[in-house]
Amino acid sequence: MYMDVLLNEDDNSTVNGLYILHDMKGFSLGYVKHLTPALCKKVILSVQNAYPFRLKGIYCINTPAIYDVFISMFTPFFNEKLRSRFKVFKEDAAEKFHEYIPQKVLPKEYGGNAGPMSKINGNIPLKIYK
Protein backbone atom coordinates (compact mmCIF):
# COMPACT_ATOMS: atom_id res chain seq x y z
CA MET A 1 0.00 0.00 0.00
CA TYR A 2 2.90 2.31 0.68
CA MET A 3 4.08 1.86 -2.89
CA ASP A 4 0.58 2.63 -4.19
CA VAL A 5 0.61 6.01 -2.43
CA LEU A 6 4.08 6.75 -3.80
CA LEU A 7 2.97 5.81 -7.29
CA ASN A 8 0.01 8.16 -7.18
CA GLU A 9 1.62 11.10 -5.41
CA ASP A 10 5.39 11.12 -5.87
CA ASP A 11 6.77 11.21 -9.41
CA ASN A 12 10.25 11.39 -7.94
CA SER A 13 9.99 7.79 -6.75
CA THR A 14 9.32 6.46 -10.24
CA VAL A 15 11.95 8.63 -11.93
CA ASN A 16 14.82 8.28 -9.47
CA GLY A 17 14.09 4.81 -8.14
CA LEU A 18 13.64 3.29 -4.71
CA TYR A 19 15.66 1.63 -2.03
CA ILE A 20 13.59 -0.66 0.15
CA LEU A 21 15.03 -0.99 3.64
CA HIS A 22 13.31 -3.58 5.80
CA ASP A 23 14.34 -3.56 9.46
CA MET A 24 13.68 -7.06 10.80
CA LYS A 25 14.22 -6.04 14.44
CA GLY A 26 11.24 -7.26 16.43
CA PHE A 27 10.04 -9.50 13.60
CA SER A 28 8.38 -12.52 15.13
CA LEU A 29 8.32 -16.09 13.88
CA GLY A 30 4.55 -15.79 14.22
CA TYR A 31 4.53 -13.80 10.97
CA VAL A 32 6.15 -16.63 9.04
CA LYS A 33 3.22 -18.98 9.55
CA HIS A 34 1.05 -16.59 7.50
CA LEU A 35 3.39 -16.61 4.53
CA THR A 36 2.76 -19.30 1.98
CA PRO A 37 4.99 -19.80 -1.04
CA ALA A 38 2.08 -18.67 -3.25
CA LEU A 39 1.73 -15.39 -1.33
CA CYS A 40 5.49 -14.79 -1.42
CA LYS A 41 5.48 -15.34 -5.17
CA LYS A 42 2.59 -12.91 -5.71
CA VAL A 43 4.25 -10.18 -3.65
CA ILE A 44 7.61 -10.52 -5.39
CA LEU A 45 6.15 -10.72 -8.90
CA SER A 46 4.02 -7.64 -8.31
CA VAL A 47 6.92 -5.63 -6.91
CA GLN A 48 9.38 -6.57 -9.66
CA ASN A 49 7.00 -6.73 -12.65
CA ALA A 50 3.86 -4.68 -12.01
CA TYR A 51 5.03 -1.50 -10.30
CA PRO A 52 6.81 1.02 -12.55
CA PHE A 53 9.53 1.71 -9.98
CA ARG A 54 13.24 1.34 -10.55
CA LEU A 55 14.29 -0.79 -7.61
CA LYS A 56 17.82 0.19 -6.71
CA GLY A 57 17.95 -2.36 -3.92
CA ILE A 58 16.10 -4.30 -1.25
CA TYR A 59 17.93 -4.54 2.03
CA CYS A 60 16.93 -6.49 5.14
CA ILE A 61 18.82 -5.36 8.23
CA ASN A 62 19.00 -6.62 11.82
CA THR A 63 18.06 -10.06 10.55
CA PRO A 64 18.36 -12.88 13.09
CA ALA A 65 20.10 -15.98 11.73
CA ILE A 66 16.93 -18.04 12.13
CA TYR A 67 15.24 -15.99 9.41
CA ASP A 68 17.37 -17.47 6.65
CA VAL A 69 14.54 -19.95 6.11
CA PHE A 70 12.00 -17.13 5.89
CA ILE A 71 14.11 -15.19 3.41
CA SER A 72 14.75 -18.30 1.33
CA MET A 73 10.98 -18.41 0.67
CA PHE A 74 11.26 -15.13 -1.28
CA THR A 75 14.51 -15.37 -3.20
CA PRO A 76 13.54 -18.13 -5.69
CA PHE A 77 10.98 -15.72 -7.18
CA PHE A 78 13.47 -12.89 -7.78
CA ASN A 79 14.64 -12.24 -11.31
CA GLU A 80 18.39 -12.07 -11.83
CA LYS A 81 18.55 -8.27 -11.57
CA LEU A 82 16.59 -8.14 -8.32
CA ARG A 83 18.59 -11.05 -6.89
CA SER A 84 21.77 -9.02 -7.43
CA ARG A 85 20.20 -6.05 -5.62
CA PHE A 86 18.91 -7.99 -2.62
CA LYS A 87 21.11 -8.06 0.47
CA VAL A 88 20.59 -9.40 3.98
CA PHE A 89 22.50 -8.05 6.96
CA LYS A 90 22.53 -10.00 10.21
CA GLU A 91 22.08 -8.27 13.54
CA ASP A 92 25.83 -8.02 14.07
CA ALA A 93 26.48 -6.57 10.59
CA ALA A 94 23.66 -4.05 10.24
CA GLU A 95 26.01 -1.10 9.69
CA LYS A 96 27.47 -2.68 6.53
CA PHE A 97 24.39 -1.67 4.54
CA HIS A 98 25.85 1.85 4.42
CA GLU A 99 28.16 0.51 1.69
CA TYR A 100 25.09 -0.05 -0.52
CA ILE A 101 22.76 2.85 0.25
CA PRO A 102 24.05 6.43 0.10
CA GLN A 103 23.80 8.21 3.45
CA LYS A 104 22.08 11.14 1.76
CA VAL A 105 18.93 9.02 1.23
CA LEU A 106 18.91 7.23 4.59
CA PRO A 107 16.82 8.47 7.51
CA LYS A 108 18.58 9.84 10.56
CA GLU A 109 17.55 6.75 12.56
CA TYR A 110 19.77 4.62 10.32
CA GLY A 111 22.78 6.91 10.24
CA GLY A 112 21.74 8.93 7.21
CA ASN A 113 21.37 12.58 6.32
CA ALA A 114 17.82 12.59 4.87
CA GLY A 115 16.19 13.69 8.13
CA PRO A 116 13.93 11.78 10.50
CA MET A 117 11.63 9.03 9.19
CA SER A 118 8.59 11.06 10.17
CA LYS A 119 9.70 13.78 7.74
CA ILE A 120 10.52 11.32 4.95
CA ASN A 121 7.23 9.42 5.31
CA GLY A 122 5.20 12.60 5.65
CA ASN A 123 1.51 11.76 5.80
CA ILE A 124 1.74 8.51 3.80
CA PRO A 125 0.92 6.32 6.85
CA LEU A 126 -2.27 8.35 7.39
CA LYS A 127 -3.29 7.77 3.78
CA ILE A 128 -2.70 4.03 4.07
CA TYR A 129 -4.91 3.64 7.14
CA LYS A 130 -7.59 6.02 5.91
UniProtKB/TrEMBL annotation:
Give the matching Pfam families: CRAL_TRIO (PF00650)
> Which GO terms of the cellular component aspect does the record hold?
membrane
Q: What protein name is recorded for this chain?
A: CRAL-TRIO domain-containing protein
What InterPro entries has UniProt attached to this entry?
Answer: CRAL-TRIO_dom, CRAL-TRIO_dom_sf
Boundaries of every CRAL-TRIO domain copy: 1-118
List the CDD domains. Answer: SEC14 (cd00170)
Q: Name one GO molecular function term.
A: phosphatidylinositol bisphosphate binding
Q: Supply the PROSITE patterns for this chain.
A: CRAL_TRIO
**Signal peptide limits:** none
Identify the domain of life. Eukaryota
